[in-house]
Amino acid sequence: MLHSKSYVKKTRGGKVTKVVREHYLRDDIYCGASICKVCDSSVARLSASASPILILDTNVVLNQIDLLENPAIEDVVLLSIVLEEVKNKNLAVYNRVRALCSNSLRKFFVFSNEHHKDTYVKEMDGESKNDRNDRAIRVATQWYQTHLGDATPVLLLTNDRENKRKAIEEGISAETVETYVKSLVRPDLLDLLVHNGSEDVRMEDVEDLRPSKRKLLYSEHKPMSEITSGLHRGIYHQGKLRVNRYNPFEAYVGSESIGDEIVIYGRTNMNRAFDGDIVAVELLPQDQWHEEKSLSIADEEEEEEEGVHLVPGSADDAPRTTGQPQGSAGETTPVSSRPSGRVVGIIKRNWQSYCGSLEPMPLPAGSGGIAHALFVSKDRRIPKIRIQTRQLENLLDKRIVVAVDSWDRLSRYPSGHYVRTIGEIGDRDTESEVVLIENDINSRPFSSQVLACLPPLPWSVSSQDLTNPIRQDLRHLQVFSVDPPGCKDIDDALHCTALPNGNFEVGVHIADVTNFVHPGTPLDEEASQRGTSVYLVERRIDMLPKPLTEDICSLRADVERLAFSVIWEMTPEAEIISTRYTKSIIRSCAAMSYIEAQAKMDDSRLMDPLTTDLRNMNTLAKIMRSRRINRGALTLASAEVKFQIDTETHDPLDIGMYQIREANQMVEEFMLAANVSVAEKILKHFPFCSLLRRHPTPTREMLQPLLLTAAAIGLNLDVSSSKALADSLDRAVGDDPYFNKLIRILATRCMTQAVYFCSGDLSPPEYHHYGLAAPLYTHFTSPIRRYADVIVHRLLAASLGIYKLPTIFQDRTQLTSIADNLNYRHRNAQMASRSSVELHTLIYFRKRPTDTEARIVKIRSNGFIVFLPKYGIEGPVYLTPRGGDKGGGEWFVDEQHQQIKMMDGSRSYSVLQAVMIHLEVVEPQPNRPKLQLSLL
């Protein structure tokens, strides 16, 4: 059956054309119920039980997704019109719903009501789109009731009073979500419900339990129309809010409109904004601006006290200031230098699910078994969240997940709801799971649909591969790999052969992942979503299933494997004469660790062919590295920590800084060269749809903390270019063996993040990679663990005429969306790795209180941040702890010399100074253990 609709449309050229939209309707779309006698039961997803079939309206799906994900909710029909609305309003929720629908263990069925002749509804004159959608949902529910008859009940779930009223008038069974959940007699499910603010108990009953506390009121958020106008007129400034990890009452908003970061100080000025929210900020009067170094580190116990002095619209609107620096989190020294502001509106929320534990809260009598509790996130940047629960006693010793629902301007805390329990507090597996949830890492097992895309095991190179004209047989070459110890997902290998003319043939061979991961398959979709493998201290979460990562694609020793090779002819001076690219077959002769490769190169007694190749490669790599640095590439440093893990208990046995060897640098140099060569090749063929990687030049403002620190110790850093900065860093040497490394670590922290982008989105000058001093760069060398490299492999294959370019490359918007997801996933993987290091550091020092040397890297008004070179750890040291001045007097910050001094001049500490520190694990707040650093 064909339904058509026509209308007239005016073109850009001024012509009026008639547009006809055809909508095909069918009568053979199945209902999905196994109990149905009419439809094909082989496609049924709904059970044959007596429980009702649930049909949900759009708002139920959008707001109650945590409830829907609970296994107790089954036999759900999702109408296509509802899915489309959810997709348009919240893509994250849409992806979670699609995951439910594709999970063979869950009884969720998608019904195409918009294409069924009995459930499609035409638009009525004067009817809003929302009313039409509600009517379509009711028509589909009524069809299900009639279609299934007495076989099973059908129930429409809606919290929309008008929709429910109309449904009941039309003879449809309809309930609110809460009424239905109560009928299941599962109190734990009631905790999952999202409540409107109007359903909350009165704030004054549960919030300000101590009468002496003043109520905290927030300014009303400006409407979007006013924000847009204010941004356009330069009154407001837009940016992402980032909360200081050492002080949750201090945040920064990077503003392009003023070319600097705006400091937001105090929860009142943050005005209910969360870390990661896109906000509109209004600058405060200049006499209320603050210098970053004058702000303090917040202590754990101070979190309850901050902000109660600040009430918008009163004389106390600005943070309190005094003539001298103070130690408490609510006070600062007024210094007119850094722009300070307050949040006036939220442009885009970044609310997520948060992990932490509960802090019980008293409640007035007659609460009907509902307890109110404050949820304390493990992430100190997140404010406490008020929830209602019927299972308080069972949750007090557990790590749980909570989602935020709302934050009323009269409420001191945001309101949320319980989502699920992770496990016992302090259990290592529980705490590792928390790391994954906090960083939105998908660690679920791969689905059967994804695994079905893999070739059967055992896999080996076939005769068709050997005779394939696109693939060159390179098994005669002496190929080897050099990786971290215990590496199983080996995605790169090398060879270096001396040529008769005195030159060298050097090859980089990368696992040919795209031979097994085809565009548009469930395997490809999953890899695209995951974006990258995630490396934690005790385990690896793969982007691709293990049969691929550790066997079929891994370039292990003594087995034939498929590769994508970049091969150069190089002079002994490491000048590239020619470059070729080919799909290949290789057979690695050795899979070495960095330590083993270094030992071979260092052992003068060894003269075997493999060691000779290693030494030749290392010689070329040193020349290439030197040339790259002369061109302006930065040699930065980061605090990489390495753990020795017990193979049985998975507990850390030892901890120390990761050691970089020449062998590491040799491999890195050739991987960089391969990435640059491939970037040039793909961009030449596909100037508008290549996936590249750029590193934006840091602004002078971003480098200011580094320049301040350098100036305070008499060091003059030239930051006019990456070359000038690199030369300055090389000259920054002192008596302290850690001095240069510390300066490089500080420089690293001033840099922007390197990001993926689509070449068509930017102009060629913006492609530049600042850190590598390279005009072009991409990622090609790690397709087993990075989806970006999979995309680049497809581009390279298409540029060589091996395969056609997939159709997705014609959709710039989708390519940009993929690049954005890759950047998000890459950053989350880095954050998860760091959090895993922090967790295992806590576990290691829990029973090992230690004294060690540290270096001061940042001065604050009540202490300083130190770096511990031996362990790669960084943390705050307080000079004015809460509960009395244990430091013995008043302190003040000397901004110019980057010092914090006692008022009587008896003691002072300056940036980069060495101090002795005592480390021990303490628990100042229940269930929030932390590594405490104390000055000896």
UniProtKB/TrEMBL annotation:
Cofactor(s) this protein cannot do without: Mg(2+)
GO BP: any one term: rRNA catabolic process
PIN domain segment(s): 52-165
This protein's GO CC annotations: cytoplasmic exosome (RNase complex); nuclear exosome (RNase complex)
Domain RNB: from-to ranges: 471-802
Localisation: Nucleus
Family matches, as CDD domains: PIN_Rrp44-like (cd09862)
Primary subcellular site in the record, as a coarse category: nucleus
Extent of Polar residues compositional bias: 321-339
Keywords: Exonuclease, Exosome, Hydrolase, Magnesium, Nuclease, Nucleus, RNA-binding, rRNA processing
SUPFAM superfamilies: Nucleic acid-binding proteins, PIN domain-like
Any Pfam family hit: Rrp44_CSD1
Single annotated GO MF: 3'-5'-RNA exonuclease activity
Signal peptide: none
Family indicated by similarity: Belongs to the RNR ribonuclease family.
Stated name of the protein: Exosome complex exonuclease RRP44 homolog A
